[in-house]
Amino acid sequence: MAARPAFDELWGASAGEEVRAGFEPLGEWLRETSAAELDRRQHAAEAAFRSLGITFNVYGEDEAAERIIPFDIIPRILSAGEWARLSAGLEQRVHAINAFVDDVYGARKILADGVVPADIVLGNEQFCVPVAGARPPHGVYAHICGIDLVRTGPDEFYVLEDNARTPSGVSYMIENREAMLRLCPELFERLAVRPVDTYPELLRDTLQSVAPDGAVQPRCVLLTPGHYNSAFYEHSFLANNMGIELVEGRDLEVDDDIVWMRTIDGRVRVDVIYRRIDDAFIDPLVFRPDSMLGVSGLMAAYLAGNVTLVNAPGTGIADDKAIYSYMPDIVRYYTGEEPRLPNVETWRCREPASLQYTLDHLDELVVKLVDGSGGYGMLVGPTASRAEIEAFRAALIAQPQRYIAQPTLALSTIPTITDKGIVPRHVDFRPFVLTGSSGVTTVPGGLTRVALREGSLVVNSSQGGGTKDSFVLDGERAATAGST
């Protein structure tokens, strides 16, 4: 994929006077709304987010780390046809992810058949040895997936990353929609936008559907590391909107392989735990003995089939970027179909030829740690300094198996309000896919992340990126009496 000018999702291949077909109402709204009014609404959104405490941590800066999530009121729009193609591809991919995780902790047929090298799985830090040979209730591992997508043209979508451990960002999707309904209600009169506010209900139904057999009225809780965690706002938001208890490790105990929640009225049995704690910290008897965040004996209860953990321990193997490079083969292996959503071209630096290519083209490529996240441990060659490139060169030579490389894509842009006026900024997209005992559901929307710095391709909120609302249109018409 050769470098080329970025595709703008409103204006098309190049900014002009005519918006893309079907998106005329947004273009008209931008022309009709004065810069002063857009600025007023933008500041109103920031004030609302501040009052709600919608925050995220920005690491590595001297000033206060906790910040309000930057939010831009110009939405991203996906047509009904675009969404139909995306959701079909997302469901196919998540089905393959669950089949893959089930297989590598079970029969390991895909390893025996040589589709994925055994050492890249069994020797992976994310491979959870304690759950090998065990299956979660209903055989679902990745109940909640956030699949990161990028776009490079009108019909060119690629999967950039699979998030199958504890994907975050869905609360911002919902709060962004609430902000847009309050601040820009006329857009919903002009555009038929599908709702996203049913997500907490869908998630609660998913949690209840995967409760262990025999749980007549399953009790679900959300396990958080606590209010110092960067995503604590989301934890409390989701628990509150699902109507379930938000708990920390000290609120739970395990007795005879059954999990109990301490309450002022005594102990209450817990059937499903939506855990927002990484594997390493969930049970000090099995993983890190110094963990103060988890629950002693939790894994014994899980392995006995008495509690469901969402997502299941061990799903992190599907997050690994080296595994990601095999996902097209994994999709073919388990579905018998061609992938509907392709990967970004990827060079596995563990392979000598790929390593040499990467070393020869460092100034052109994006290089990532296979177990990295949040935009950390990453080199963006075209914008990196000579010193940064040489530091990565040394790291690659020393431990090539820790890295993959990808081309620097011309990510699509969306008009964004800045100090310089309305200008294009690069975006990515994280839709959320739920898998319960009865099947897969893709929420009609997602988290659009925007790189606020001019020319930047790094959209992560943890590194100063912002967010936008994502409008999925209901039907092929763009102008109608809208739903919310």
Automatic annotation (TrEMBL):
Gene source species: Allosphingosinicella deserti
Domain of life (superkingdom): Bacteria
Name this protein carries in UniProt: Circularly permuted ATP-grasp type 2 domain-containing protein
Pfam families in the record: CP_ATPgrasp_2
Domain Circularly permuted ATP-grasp type intervals: 75-451
